[in-house]
Amino acid sequence: MKRVFYLSERIYMNNFGKKFAIAAITGIMSLAASMTAFAASGIKSVKINIKSDAITVGKPRNIDDVTVSTSGSNYSIDGVDFLEMGTDWQITDVPKITVHLAADDNYYFSVYKAEDFKITGGELIEARRENTSNDLYVDIQLPALTNQVSPIESVTLNNSGQATWSASQGASGYQVKLVRDNSSTIGGVQNFTTNSANLKYLLNRQGTYVLKVRALSSDAQKNGPWVTSNTITVSQAEAARNYNESQSQTSQSGTWQHNNTGWWYTLADGSYVTSSWRQINGEWYYFNADGYMLVGWQQVGGNWYYMDLNSGKMLSNTTTPDGYYVGISGAYSATGK
After folding, report:
1. Does the predicted model carry a pTM greater than 0.85?
2. Predicted local distance difference test score (pLDDT) of residue 5
3. 178 located within any domain
4. Most buried residue, 93, 95, 157, 309, by most Cβ within 10 Å?
5. Which Pfam family, any one of them, does this sequence belong to (predicted)?
6. Binning pLDDT at 50, 70 and 90, where does residue 247 land?
7. Do both 174 and 232 map to the same domain?
């Protein structure tokens, strides 16, 4: 009897030990899970890269025009949206977006100050942590549209040389170039303050012509793209007629203007001469790409010309002040000056 009791006791004790062991293991597992959660790593810096060049004055607001990426680790982008809704972008707008970031498993956001954020293409407004810091919402201000221009929607050129183009919101002026036979730019690049021009005097050779126009921003850093007109074909007879008319009106009436940089010549239609020769009151002048009259020796089209230092008029069939002879065309024919 004692032996049986002893065995029964052993069995009871063994079962108790097993129950205790199971409870202990369960507790250890729970503690391990708690320790794993407690050991989640903090994300101490956030890097966001933004490209928003597609946002343009006059264009409808579309979040697809904003490209956002991250160069950090252990988190990803969960959404991007504008802070302020509207229709078309206006030149007075300053776009703002919210970027929603989500932390990876076993990570949380531990960012507290502006220095924890590295943002390219925008400036931090504020950031908010939510969902026990697993989500981070970052408000960012994008570049202002103050100096942008809206796209030119259409450009039209007819056989009479009349050119028109749609106005661009925010434009300080327009650059225009006439291209013949897909190769030669006729008359150089010209600047206009209006959205129309009469270019008949440039249609003086047979061929096909297109006009290219772009809007100029006020700071010249965000000029619009070149927009091309329809193609016109000028016959030999039309070209001859245009040439004869241009010879009888060598110069459009205009006005000389001056500032601290130099002189330029503004025409009656609001344009001014750039990157080309212009005969004014019987004298020839050359204007650079910015529209300013050049003086002294200038190399144009592979030839050297001398422009009077005071008046700017080209010298011809004479000796220059520094002792070089220029021919009837104004060009110095020998190599160099």
Report:
1. no
2. 33
3. yes
4. 157
5. Choline_bind_3
6. low
7. yes
Model confidence pLDDT, tens digit, residues 164-180: 999 888 888 888 999 99
147 falls within a domain:
no
Q: Are residues 193 and 106 in the same domain?
A: no
Q: How many domains in the chain?
A: 3
Q: What confidence score (pLDDT) does residue 192 get?
A: 78
14 within some domain: no
pLDDT score of 13: 38
**Residues of the domain holding 77:** 41-141
Q: Are 176 and 88 part of one and the same domain?
A: no
Secondary structure (H, E, C), the chain: CHHHHHHHHHHHHHHHHHHHHHHHHHHHHHHHHHHHHHCCEEECCEEEEEECCCCCCCCECCHHHCEEEECCCCEEEEEEEECCCCCECCCCCCCEEEEEEEECCCEEECCCCHHHEEEECCEEEEEEEECCCCEEEEEEECCCCCCCCCCCCCEEECCCCEEEECCCCCCCEEEEEEEECCCEEEEEEEEECCCEEECHHHCCCCEEEEEEEEEECCCCCCCCCCEECCCEEECHHHHHHHHHHHHHCCCCCEEEEECCCCEEEEECCCCECCCEEEEECCEEEEECCCCCECCEEEEECCEEEEECCCCCCECCCEECCCCCEECCCCEECCCCC
Last residue within a domain, chosen from 248, 278, 308: 248
| 32 within a domain of the structure (yes/no) | no
Q: Are residues 204 and 265 in the same domain?
A: no
